[in-house]
Fold these 2 entries.
Entry 1:
Amino acid sequence: MIIEYSRITQIQGDIISVIASGVQYSELAVVKSHMKTSLAQVIRLRGDEVFLQVFAGTRGVATGDQVRFLGHPMQVPFGDALLGRIFNGSGYPIDGGPELKVLPRLEINGPSVNPVMRVIPRGFIETRVPMIDMFNPLVESQKLPIFAAAGEPYNELLARIGICADADIVILGGIGLKHDEYLKFRRAFEESGISSRTIMFVHTASDPVVERLLVPDLALAVAEQFGVKGKRVLVLLTDMTAFADAMKEIAISMDQVPSNLGYPGSLYSDLASRYEKAVDFEGAGSITILAVTTMPGDDVTHPVPDNTGYITEGQFYLKKGVIEPFGSLSRLKQLVIGKVTRQDHGHIMNSMIRLFAKGREVEQKLAMGFERTADDERYLRYGKLFYERFMDLKVNMGLDEALDLGWYTLAECFRPDEVGIKQELIDKHWPRA
Amino acid sequence: MTSTMDSRIVAVNGPLVTVETVKAQEVMMNEVAYVLCNDVFLKSEIIRIRGRLVDMQVFENTVGLKVGDRVDFTGSLLSASLGPGILGQIYDGLQNPLSKLENDQGYFLRRGQYISSLNEDRRWEFTPSVKPGDTVRAGYYLGSVPEGIFEHHILTPLALQGAWEVVDINQQGAYTVTDRIATLKNREGVEVPIKMAQQWPVKLPVRAYKERLLPDRQLLTQCRLIDIFFPLAEGGTACIPGPFGAGKTVLQQIVSRYAEADIVIIVACGERAGEVVETIRELPLLEDPRTGKSLMDRTVIICNTSSMPVAAREASIYTGVTLGEYYRQIGLKVLLLADSTSRWAQALRESSARLEEIPGEEAFPAYLESRIAALYERAGVVRLYDDSTGSLTLIGNVSPAGGNFEEPVTQNTLKVVSAFYGLSRTRSDRRRYPAIDPLISWSLYLKQMKESLCERHPEWVSWVEETQNLFIQGNEIHQMMLVVGEEGVGIDDFVTYLKSEMVDVVCLQQDSYDAVDRATGRDRQISDFTLLIRMVHHRFDFETKGEARQEMTHLQNLFFQMKYCLFQGVEYMKYRTEIESILRKE
């Protein structure tokens, strides 16, 4: 039953309202104006008033324009034919290829996975970035954001991990992406030869704001289906702060009471319902999510990174071009450290970080002009070696190699009784002079 | 199918729907109603009534609802099912058993599926404890069934008012929770059939006991920082606020496994599904050292993870507390861990915003404070009608925005709890776990339980206070050294600083991934802390700071190695003897 209405009573921001009946909550509609045709989604019903958010924006929408309800919520085509393709935020191909009309369609925003059907993550994903592999390893089915200020090389890091990581399918969700960045991702995937197993959903900064909201849902709905079919999927999302900002815009247009810096009170749930799609299915595939969250003003207490931090299983801080050892955390690391990886991994990791923290304290002390003791020298030397050998993003090395280098570096700077490691491990791994 | 006699939806706004009731319809605040959406009934709860317009929060996704859809009211409040068979279950926020849903639905949780919370086919071996003619009141025991290692008393329905006479009671035998096991009659001659399963509205506290007692016995968590410095009482309340990544989750997992409670209820409220999965998968494999049975046998998990519907999140904590109160009525020591109460408060905020109520601080509703207070007040230790005691201890995790404790949920929680374990980013960044900051945390139970704590050692409480002062001093000296350098402080102060560092490293810090160190029992706590306090009291005689640092590092390493050794094992005794010989020197 398709009904057309042509009486738009209100236009505010990207939201329109029409008088209609029999409309379902969340249903999709087509708004046809003389400039363009756009999809729209029902976001509120009040009596016979229906509120819709118009994906392509309301510029040029006239009160007499036609609104046609489609009787179903937002859907996305699904099938192997998606591989290697690029779509926009409404799910239309933008790579010049054919439309995928014959494929079955999935509803986005499906129900959540029964926690009982999840398994404990246990797959270690080696990235060859020592600050990740050694100190905060990425685990299959984990959801991890990269917190970065504007200007940090987060998209390069994301692309590098996308290329190196061992996944069956890589899905990129670009939200408010600069056009240059989009081209860079595209080129990086093509040059590394992985584009045949990638799918890109790209919303660039010049596209209508409402389309931003759909990108994570489209990417994750497709990832979920591949996951159920046994594929190990890596989803890369950049930038989730742009997603949250779009949500803020819609909420304000709907006169919602903002909770913090204008963001709606539901920000946590809205972000969580996306990130929680990361899953390891019992007896099938998995979804791992790596997302960029830019921090406005480099402030981690900003509502978007803050809420994200509570949802995700850890976070990487990208600061001054390196992954910060403090604050960066992979909550799932204990599931693989010493179990999938070498037995000494956990101990050497903790010890190295503890000593590096001490080194930072010494640096601060010296910066204030205090006398330098022989002890201080050793910590400074250690700090310098640590930076060069592990933190520098140029370093490209496997985990076992990094662990050996860790023992070697400790032995260069400290005595065994200073590092706080169990005696049996010292006996086994401490490099003999 | 529909008629003009039905109540109907007039507006949909996310999970909030507004219903226009038919004229004769009587509705009740917090009453459960079902919304019919394309042949599926969606459970919902009334949260506001204005004339014939009723606002309800739907506990499910509302996609596909239409204006004009039918609504059925049930006439009952949102309730939990209470009876034998709750232990070991994994429920969603509305007490649907998730493992049953799994069998029926595969990977995903389809909406509109409600399954009875208790297994209605299982037979329980019932032994009556009353006889016809006896008088009972709500909460009196009628008999018992064995549930795991516990004697599960069958309660006179908690909702019954006044005195009731037992008309008949079943013989010993096997019955299901829905079988009639007794009949009661009141003075007016009204007869009610009694089953083992009963319902109780989750938002009302259970008060069927003689009196509430002052919590004065310790609940051991086996986390040294808590047990020694900021002890928790049976029937007490505590909150654990902390920024993300500071280790709330790991701390909670450790407490849920090793705390010496009879029953542990874990409410995963708006948190990651992954955490629940770890608990679900690992608990059944872990052995409860006190019973030899699986830890899952003493655990109930209620999970409304962050991607599950928001409206059910608010209910999930109440469901958990209600189950806790029920087992307290049976005379057990119950520990409830709620992670996190901030998500629960946010759920309140979301529904308040949709109701367009005037917001308070940070858009939280004005009734936030009273709701939090009422929740924590449901904890407590009580004397039951048979003079035994039962307790419900409540630990709530708080996730303050930006890690800033000045926000409304943390502040309102601090007002009502008696122990505060503040996690600090500084400590977690330095890998000092558990990252509870000893300088800001407090527990009123240290004084309240003085008598029972001093059973450990007559000086125990004063030792603890002395050590707490040592942390403060150590921190002051540390701050001073940051400004004036190591050379700027005297050797005595320097040694004090090293002592406080040592206590931090070997006692406060606990490795939750080490098989020995992750849990420290009472005896070991007493033994190790008694040795450690000797170190604190010891007057070391060092010539130079270099010597002090070297000797103290050596001593610290001995304590450190000792904590990884099995209590009173050969290795342990070796380190202990060495430490004692150092402390004997003048």
Entry 2:
Amino acid sequence: MKFPIFRSSLVAMASLLPLSLLALITFLTIYSWPAIQYNQFHFLWTNDWDLGNLYGDPVMEHGFQVMPHARYGIWFLIVGTVASSFIAMVLALPLAIGAAVLLAEGMRKSRAAPLSLFVDLLASIPSVVYGLWGYAVLVPLLGQHVYPAMAHALSFVPFFGGAPGSGYGLLTASLVLTIMIVPLISATLRESINMTDPALKEAGRSLGLSRLEVFWHVVLPKLRTVVIGVSILALGRALGETMAVLMVSGNALNYLPNNIYTPISSMAAFIASQLDSALQDPTNMAVQALSEIALVLLLIAVAVNVIARLILWMARVR
Amino acid sequence: MLFRMKKNLSRNINGIALLSALGLSAFAAMPASAAPISLLETGSTLLYPLFNLWVPVYTKMNPGVQITTQGTGSGTGIAEAISGVAQIGASDAYMSDAQIKMHPNILNIPLAISIQMINYNLPGLNNVHLKLSGPVLAGIYNGTITNWDDAAIAKLNPGVKLPNHKIIPIHRTDGSGDTFIFTTYLSDTTPVWSKNIGYSTTVSWPAVPGGIGAEGNPGMVQALKTTPYGVAYIGISWKKPVEEAHLGLAMLENRAGQFVLPTVANAKAAAGEMVAKTPADERISLVYAPGAKSYPIINYEYAIVSKTQPNAQVAAELRKFLNWSIDLKGGNAPHFIEAVNFVPLPDSAVALSRKQIAEIQ
Amino acid sequence: MATEILETMGIKTVEKRYAPSWRRQWGNALGWLAIMAAFLILAGAFFSIIGEVVVKAFPVLRPALFAKITNGIGGGLKNAIEGSLVLSLGSLLVAAPIGMAAGIYLSEHGAGRWGSALRFLSDVLVGVPSIVLGYFGYIAMVIYLGWQFSVAAGVITLAVMLLPYIARSTELAMANIPNAVREAGYGLGAGEGHLVFKVLLPGAAPAIMTGIFYAVALSMGETAPLLYTAGWSNYMWNGHMTQEPIGYLTYVIWSFINEPFAESHMLAFAAAFLITFGVLMLILLGRWMLVRSQRKLGAYR
């Protein structure tokens, strides 16, 4: 048999992707190793982040040089990251499916093309601009009008009542993330709807189903893997988003949200905002602890993927 | 450990990297001697506007030098001056003793003096200059003073009708020289704060219900603007946006027990008191200066520079630029300094800075 | 548009022999209403954001923007525009072949264990915050390899960020092509390489392009990974891949908005405007090229 040149070069090229991730993981693990040893497991479930007295003299603790009073615990970051991204995905999925259906099924191609530009353009806006829009437009609107009304009307629903806060918080961060990830889901979905075998749609229509019913009962089930796949991608994007979250989340430190209006902080935003101060730590433990956060964030992304795959697997078994 | 390994290997790998880079950009092999000397400044976002005012004027007068300015943050500025990536690291905070011990050939050269405002958003009271003290601000930020009509605030402001409303303290979430000098003031005035939280470019803020962390000085202005009953500390360069937003400006209690506004005259008074105390390496806090007129929150803005530069031309251009920047007819001239509401460096501090600049080789 | 939607809502069903039940008609109407609402929410957000950018950028949109380099708080954006193009195109040149190869592998041979492992790792890579990639690039390339702030460090960091997006959209696009097409190709005696390049890729091109444009948009909109790798320069790029920092538009947005001068704010919004509309142009250009090439090829769909 001929040597499969195409196949081998394909595999060689493709392997650069996992290799770059492995390089990143290796780097993060080696780099944060002292912090992992120093912090042990309570790093994950304590709400206690303090770079310590950066102007003091380093002290020895458990065999490591650290700044006095330095403590690293990130439970509040894990909660903030997962909550904001999860809410964003729950809100983004119906919006994205709605937009994709309207553009793919609801109108003629010639009209859909310019309108789909809107949705695609939402993806082209830099995340800093989302952040600016978030704090100039969204935060005052939500904080002064929408949230007080919501908290009043929904006071009986857990996590929706209580103090409506200032507008900077969990729900605002989720809403900005939602708008950011919708185009990612919607664009892929639209292409997939367009590419679905037309015979399937025609068969459904000939049974007397309306276009919407065809979509709901015939097309969407066929696209289940696409929907879940692209949702994971979007969730990953939300988990890793930095600037926009930094600007609207209220950046809570060392406490947990008690309702959806409370300030939170996400791991990616926290790394970005703390890196500069951490660089001032002469023992380097602060930067190492930040890279340990990055490692934990990677592990969360792994967990999200495993769960999504389990869902797919169970759906197939059934 | 990793750091040492990095340094040893980097020299060997440098060659390989350069070779591959040349391969990638064969067309760009230009003789280095003909190109102008380029300097890189990076660091403090508070000093960044001033550098941006300086550089166009300076490079026009000195076409042989190109200066790139970057606003990245004080910690980054210090780190990159140490690593040699940048020639000038701008910082609002001086390097700690522990850092100096590890990197003894790094200089901390003051270029100007900055001031900090304490602002608030109290509907109906923003045209009144409320009187606040270090212990009261510490109480607000650690959650022991929660209401605007608290007795501690009322006692400082007799006759002012304070609202019965929760205070929303706003702090910087990114590492910041503003946080450094604000927490220094709280530490100097309030033993409890000094003991539990201390001072730094980022601190472990106590969890105050409703409290907000904002990103950068514009984030602080924006957050305060949209948050009635909030209080925030903001760099003096943002005086105009703060005034345009009609936010309140506090009078602060100084070491002499007087309440003073952050005016240039009051800052100069404070600087005058502290300048005689400034040591030869110029690493000193100017916060909470003695004197009846002294405004309590001011600081030196530093250029962090390595004594040993890659070559003599770079060192010469660096000395020339830094000497110009602290000159009253150069970078410290009123039209530069007033544009960012800073205070020029006092004469004796200029002399100390010049002595340090001469050490750059 | 309205008539089509009315029709789909079942308003004209009187003429049809088969009339759906009331419940189904209501369900349909409600469904379309929800869909319209979803679209309106997105359009509202879009106009609110774009409106903000356009209004604030409008006063500074003059030719000097493209002719001058950034100088202190003002000047133009010539160096930043050049830098953004260099960094985006560079990262695309690095990332597109690798990402597409990974996507093709996933869709054609991705059923097995290796395929799922690759897919898994690719999805994990999406979750890496850009600041972490930036810091990794800083330690590995800027410090360790001694490249200093440079084009090479920025391009490679961005490319790693783009890989999973390109891989995933390529995979999804290829997987959507009916198997009959592959069978027909092999039946006519085409090799795998031939089949992929001449048949599958052209067929999947629209969806792949969507993914790549999304990736370009992403690369142009990023600040955090570049701050620590590409640095920033007030001057034009001198062609060196290492040792020299380079400017880019997002830096202007990110740091000039942090300055206390109105002039620098306007420059920041001008940069945001240029990025947004630059990407719009890219998308339009991409679609136009696609329509042309498909007409030439004669799409099999």
